[in-house]
Specification:
Helix content is about 55%, strand content about 0%. It is mainly alpha-helical.
């Protein structure tokens, strides 16, 4: 089926390293159903349920189930790894802090001030 080989593989590429929030899960489900609905040539105005569309397209597994499965498999691989080998398991070394780009009250470098003046004078 083209859906499994082309669409699904592109949607979940690299999914084993993703941190999914509820909003991400909702968007992935919406994208999956949009692709299935369009493949089945069913308009939203037809008001067919997601289960009906999944049955018609013979797509019983949800993408989120596949993502979870891939994440569990990766977690097992990382747990069995030697701790000295890359990628190191999460939490094995402290996080590095990133310097903020601009802090309030700190003067801009001279190059930035020149660009700021240039854009303010010629953008009108």
């Amino acid at each position: 089926m083209i859906y499994n080989s082309m669409v699904k593989s592109v949607l979940i590429y690299g999914a084993e390293t993703w941190s999914l929030y509820e909003d991400d899960r909702r968007r992935i489900n919406a994208t999956e159903m949009d692709v299935l609905r369009r493949s089945a040539r069913i308009c939203k105005l037809d008001r067919k349920t997601n289960e009906y569309i999944r049955g018609k397209m013979d797509a019983q597994d949800m993408i989120l189930d596949d993502i979870t499965r891939k994440q569990i498999i990766r977690y097992g691989h990382v747990e069995r790894m030697d701790p000295t080998r890359l990628p190191k398991p999460e939490g094995s070394e402290p996080l590095r802090t990133v310097r903020p780009i601009y802090r309030t009250g700190v003067p801009l470098p001279s190059e930035c001030r020149i660009l700021y003046i240039f854009f303010n004078n010629y953008m009108y």
